Each structure stands twice: as C-alpha cells, then as structure tokens.
Amino acid sequence: MKLSALIAALVVALVRPDPAEIRCHGELVAYLTAAKAVSETAFESDLMIQARGSSIGQELEFVNLDLHFSRIQRFDQAAQGLGTLDQGRGYQRVDLQISPRFDSWFDGQGFGSRVDFESQVSLDAFADLSDPTPWLLADDETLRIATLTMDYGGLELSAGDSVTLDVLGQADASGSRTTSFVLRDPGTEIASMVEPVFQRPEAHSEGAGVAAFESTITVAVVPEPAVLLPLCLGLLSALLLRRQRHH
C-alpha cells in the first residue's frame, strides 16, 4: 500500500466512528416503487429515499441493503425465500443497477456474492479512500439509490403465483435492522446508523395496499418454449391449409 493511501485510511479510521457503534432512528424515508414488468419473466423496482426533519443537512455515507425476506409465493403453498432457490443462489437473480450519483460507492459485489451475507449489498462513500464522496442531504429531494431487477425465468411459475422483493431487512445481533443507512453531522462529525421509515408517497397510488418495503408482481400465463413450438406449428399448418382451400 502506498504511504498516501495508508495515511488516508488512518485519517478515516480516526474521524469516522464504526457505524455499528452508534445507532438511532432518524427521519429518513425509504420505499420501493411499484413493480414494473421489463420482460415476460422479469420486473424492476427502484429503491428511493427522502430526507425529512433532522436528517436534512446530514451527509449520507453508507447504505446496507438486505433482501432477506424476498420470496416466491406459489398458489396454495408456503412462501419460498430467494435464498432457497437455485441451490442457494437465488439472490443472484436480482440485478443491482446503482444510480450514477452513487456509482463510486459500489465495490461490484452484488447480491449472492458475499459468503454468509448473500442477501446483502453495501454501498460506501469511502470505497475509494483517496476520494470519498458522501452525499449531502441538502433538502427533501427524493433520491434513487438503485434499481433492482428480478429475473424469475425458469422457475416454472404458474399464473397467479407472485414474486416479491423485500428490503425491510432482518434484526441483527444488536436488534437493529440490516437495511440501514449511515448519516454524519458535518458540524460534529458524529455518525449515526439510521433505520429508515418505510413510507410510500401518496402520489404513488399504484403501490397502494403493498408495504413500502416490498414490490410484488403477479405472474401472468407464460407458455414454456416446449409448449410454444407445437402451438406455433399447429397455427402455421392451419394457415397453410386455409390458403390452399382458397386457391
């Protein structure tokens, strides 16, 4: 490690307390937008945040996102967590597209990449110690953190089954939730681990009836390729036969 990088690391360690040491509830609102189909077997949802009250004027410098409770709900069956799919690789079905303003915070380890923490992804303003980029929450502007895209192709789902992305997170050993944010007061340099208030704005009426930390899509009828081929051949044969009769 270069001397300059080592000095930068020591400075950060001295002025930036461990987020796990200071936790509190803050006025930071978060929510997932309503599910939007992007193909026959995939949908996307945006993770949004909005500063309110005392969190306005704070610097956002760390995000931990946990999909632990995301699930598949098959008709008349118990819900199945993403972590149980694809021999434990179900979380890899969720693609994470970081908002450009937070792109430098991402170390490239997406869902399913971290051993024992497969359901979690972290974004850190200090990922590059030589050029940290905390974001000042100057007002109540709504910010997009990332877009999550879930691919449920090949799971043999039936019409009426549902797929849910859930970012609530689980309670860790300290009792705090694993989906959380770190805010720092620029004046005091005190950092706080904040659990967001999940609340969808009234303007997002399309998400009514669904918890703000969830985004759910109900599967429509999607014929498998093995079914589509005979069907297409049958329709083609019928069309050719009809044309022959007219000639």
Describe this structure in words.
With 247 residues, the protein is α+β, with helices and mostly antiparallel strands. It has one domain (18-242). It has helices at 3-15, 225-246; strands spanning 23-32, 36-39, 42-51, 59-66, 71-73, 80-81, 94-98, 120-124, 135-136, 142-151, 162-166, 180-184, 191-198, 214-218. The strands form 2 sheets. Strands 1, 2, 3, 4, 7, 8, 9, 10, 12 and 13 form a 10-stranded mixed β-sheet that branches. A 4-stranded antiparallel β-sheet has the order 6-5-11-14, with no helix packed on it. The termini are far apart.
User: Proportion of β residues?
Assistant: 25-35%
The number of E-state strands comes to 14
Overall 3D shape:
globular
Oligomer: single chain
Largest sheet: 10 strands, mixed
End-to-end Cα distance, whole Å, is 81 Å
What is the number of helices? 2
Q: Helical proportion?
A: 10-25%
The class by helix and strand makeup works out as alpha+beta
Give the averaged pLDDT, no decimals.
Answer: 83
Compressed to H and E, one letter per element, the order equals HEEEEEEEEEEEEEEH
The Cα radius of gyration reads: 23 Å
Low-confidence stretches: 1-25
Number of domains: 1
Keywords: Membrane, Transmembrane, Transmembrane helix
InterPro entries: Ice-binding_C
Protein name: PEP-CTERM protein-sorting domain-containing protein
Transmembrane segments: 225-241
